[in-house]
Write a structure and sequence with these properties.
mainly alpha, hpI Integrase, Chain A, 2 domains, 3-stranded antiparallel sheet, 3 strands, globular, binds zinc ion
Length: 399
């Protein structure tokens, strides 16, 4: 649903084109970004319940666990009637966690107004005696539907890949150099990057917004961007303008000198020449091609990265989020594993998300202790040339 003010809502409709009220009650608790994720998850669940003739008053926890096994592909056989497209892939742990969250929230919220199997509601809210140790991140309350496997650790983006992207003729425009530099140094989410407006960029020291002395940007979640980009913010939505008209609040991120210089290069070389075609305030636009001046979408950023990887001869697929992980992991190590500082700078709601992703301490520390353990071994030493650490070998030898 696009509202008259441009804001988007993700609601579920019945086959008779009426708003599905029970799901609306729970979906309206969330902002657009989470609402979109949860609405798609919930509609899948409602389709399953419909196809299998399950109603809230008779549904059991075991039914829901079979449903979860169905969506994660863990089901050993076929249960009930197939409701999903056979080409749909099973969900990963992180997406299944979202499904578990909204399905639980749906039945708990439903129990306030409609007849729901009371055993089901108490099993969902009892704190997870069914699968111990699985805690939902936000509420701190166990969800018996949550997948047992934790989400996968992020893939490591090696320095060599970044270096390859910055070889001549790999990034073909100043804009693309800016994008990769901002993803790499700032670790911005791609939605946040595409949603940046000029008024969000406070790239001077002591900007009159008064919220950070160093050059910075404000990442504001807005629902009315022409490219559909949305920044994810955990703060309550508000108009984000100070009384003197400066953007304030949101997630305030420091910017590196290279982020500033690549922005100015883009502005001069590519933005200004087509500025007369621009009818919006977003920073990233298409310079050439069929729609000069149009706001760049997150899909276009992903496509640009894919093409750059091809040109660089890289066989890996680099996603915008890989840069965020790299930037956050690097900052985490540089801050001596200060999860709170990383969460605040990168805009995670709590430090637990940082330790979930990157561990309580990082590999650098683990390796130091592992080396000590290996050195203390009673095993006789191997061939002397093998005893050299890699960094003691010359580059030639490593090759
Ligand atoms: Zn500011």
């Amino acid at each position: 649903m696009r509202h008259t003010d441009g804001a988007l809502s993700y609601w579920i409709f019945t086959p008779g084109a009426e708003v599905h009220r029970p799901s609306l009650n729970v979906l309206k608790r969330y902002g657009t970004s989470s609402q979109q994720t949860y609405a798609y998850s919930l509609v899948d669940h409602l389709n399953w319940a419909h196809a299998n003739g399950k109603t809230p008053d008779s549904l059991t926890l075991e039914d829901l666990q079979r449903y979860m096994n169905g969506v994660t592909g863990e089901a050993g056989g076929v249960y009930g009637i197939a409701w999903r497209d056979p080409d749909q892939k099973p969900l990963g742990a992180s997406a299944a966690g979202n499904v578990a969250t909204i399905v639980k929230a749906y039945y708990v919220s439903l129990s306030a107004s409609e007849k729901v199997n009371s055993d089901l509601v108490s099993a969902l809210t009892s704190g997870g005696a069914v699968r111990r140790g699985v805690r939902s991140r936000s509420a701190g309350e166990a969800n018996p539907l949550a997948p047992t496997k934790s989400s996968r650790r992020p893939r490591f983006l090696p320095d060599e890949v970044v270096e390859a992207l910055f070889q001549p003729d790999v990034l073909t425009t100043a804009r693309d150099v800016m994008i990769v530099t901002w993803l790499h140094d700032g670790g911005l989410r791609v939605g946040g990057l595409c949603g940046l407006r000029f008024c969000d960029l406070h790239l001077v020291r002591h900007h009159p917004c008064g919220q950070r002395a160093d050059p910075h940007i404000h990442i504001i979640g807005r629902d009315d961007n022409p490219n559909g980009a949305r920044a994810k913010t955990y703060a309550a939505p508000r108009d984000n303008l100070s009384s003197d008209g400066y953007v304030v609040d949101g997630i305030i991120r420091a910017v590196s000198p290279d982020m500033i210089s690549t922005f100015h290069a883009y502005l001069l070389d590519e933005y200004h020449p087509v500025q007369h075609l621009v009818d919006h305030e977003l920073v990233l636009i298409h310079g050439q091609g069929p729609t000069p001046g149009a706001a760049m979408t997150t899909a276009a950023v992903r496509k640009m990265l894919r093409r750059a990887c091809d040109r660089a001869g890289l066989s890996v697929r680099v996603t915008p989020h890989a840069f965020r992980h790299k930037a956050a992991a690097a900052f985490y190590a540089a801050s001596d594993f200060n999860a709170e500082m990383v969460a605040q700078e990168f805009g995670w709601a709590n430090p637990e998300m940082v330790t979930d992703l990157y561990g309580k301490s990082a590999n650098r520390h683990a390796l130091k202790y592992l080396r000590e353990a290996w050195e203390a071994t009673a095993r006789p030493p191997s061939e002397p040339y093998l005893a050299l650490c890699e960094d003691e070998l010359t580059e030639e030898e490593v090759r």
